[in-house]
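Q: Trace token order:
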Amino acid sequence: MKILLAAVNAKYIHSNLALYSLYRYTKKYRNHVMMLEFTINQRTEDVMQSIYRQHPDVLCFSCYIWNISIIRELAAELHKVLPDMKIWLGGPEVSYDAVRELTRMPYAAGVMRGEGEETFLQLVSHYVDGTAPLDEIAGITYRNQKGDTVENPGRRLLDMGDIPFPYDKLSEFAHRIIYYETSRGCPFSCSYCLSSVDKKLRFRPFSLVREELAFFLENRVKQVKLVDRTFNCRKDHARAIWRYLLENDNGVTNFHFEIAADLLEEEDFEILSGMRPGLIQLEIGVQSTNPDTLREIKRTMDFEKVCTAVKTVQKFHNIHQHLDLIAGLPYEGYGSFRKSFNDVFALHPEQLQLGFLKVLKGSYMWEQAGMYGCVWREHEPYEVLFTDWISYEELLELKRVEEMVEVYYNSGQFAYTMDFLARQLGTPIDCFEALGRFYEEHGYLGISHSRARRYEILLEFIQEVCPGEIPRYKNLLTFDYYLRENAKSRPVWSPKPSVSQMEMKNVYGNLYDGILSHYRGFDHRQIQRMTHVEAFDCGIVLFDYERRNPMTNDASWHLIRSKVTDDKEDKRDIKASG
């Protein structure tokens, strides 16, 4: 008997935590259970062939919003070539409407609803040993021998301490993000989120968490992304983990946490302030700053406390902060969302994610959508089309803003230019709206532009909206460009270099005992390959690409103020600062 667990992930770098958890939970059936991972970017035909070659007796698919269409296609086609194979489905995309899913997919044998470890174990024992009749397995919806659909009672939730660690070796995760959980459930009841359905909040014992974090650190994995819905909802649990990471940092691994920033207190700030730059990053869901919207979606948040927390963390200069907004929520019209955007942008997070409401099956939002005049796409990702407060046209405008924010803000490649431009054009969202319209009017949307081309397009936009400021913006763009790029060829739009070879040589020579002391022993050409010198109105700037900011990947830079004296020797006084 061969049972195959199959996952179709969004990207190769994403590991499937649920798949590995199920696999490890059925350890005693290791000779019968195997797993395969694919991505949505692979050809469906190739995925189908890979599964077919295994000739499984039972095929179990993990179903999510990003892969359900592919799963349905695969299941239908595989049933034709392997008609005796039993197909089971699991995951959030099928758990909340299992009877309808089985009606839609007559070739499927059943659905595992909700938390899957114990349910999958019993399902495996049913097929391998015949010891667990289907009518006695809690948490499944299945077809009986008569072809009728039967929905068994739900399953009691597991103790987090009883779930085995999903990873036993990490060699296959060398270039992938590892997902990990220290809790399940959420204390909050946000109406758009499926996590609010699981009311029972459970935590993994810290003794186990400590061992597992040590495993990640010893193996020097690149990134561990915790999927806990509100990581710091239990303060002693969060602080114990953060302290452990602070004390055992390997200098390499990054840990990602989704937190409620308004729950942070002085004790948390004390721990966070001591962390290595890049050790952790924080994702903070703001969603909206409209009090009526927050109240209606049952989201508990004190935005003033969020602002204080974000600003406090920023002062440490060691933690990447990612803030989220959702467009299309109840009581959030276009004007209200513009305010929410500007409120959050004013905090200057490292990333601002502009998302759009997805009406997920099983969520409270799904049940109440009619009250809000909420209409959404028929197929996944079930994204909102319009509500009583915001039109489709306005959401399209925000789609353009989203793309501009992703390219010109979240990339971090245009930081100084965009900061000045946003202030000149009124408010941040005014700037991104105008830039998005410019892209559309010139046919630039929907094209995969090179990084260099993005600079050129931005300069075209600036020439249209700020024609009298072109020299200043060329300087800002040049600064942004060299902050990231150790470019050997000069961009065509950049001002002509105003630093002579002789002056560059003098700069390097005078800095050997200062900011370039770490290059002592290198010759002039070697240093030039690892640095760049550029003259701006403020003075001469040296960019050092061997010493990049671990938070932003920007080169370190040093302002060198040049002063020419009038004495007979015409000495050049070069000083480094910055």
